[in-house]
C-alpha cells in the first residue's frame, strides 16, 4: 500500500519510519537532525513556505508535507476493501 503525502508525492507505507508534527523542529535534537539531513540533501520539501505541517521520515528521505500528522495517520491506517 501507498501513502499520499501531498504535492503529487506517493510513497510506500512500508518505508515510513515516523510522522512528526512540524513543531517538533523546535526541539534542539530534532533541529540538529534536520540540519544534517539538509546538508546531506535528503530532505524533500513538498509544502509551500509557511504551509508545512509535518515531517515524514522514510528509509531514504525526509519529506516536509503540507498535510497534518493526524490526516497522514488516518491515511496510513485506511484499508481499502474491494468486492470480488
UniProtKB/TrEMBL annotation:
Pfam families: RemA-like (PF04025). It comes from the Bacteria. NCBIfam families: MtxRegRemB. This is DUF370 domain-containing protein. It comes from Desulfofundulus thermosubterraneus DSM 16057.
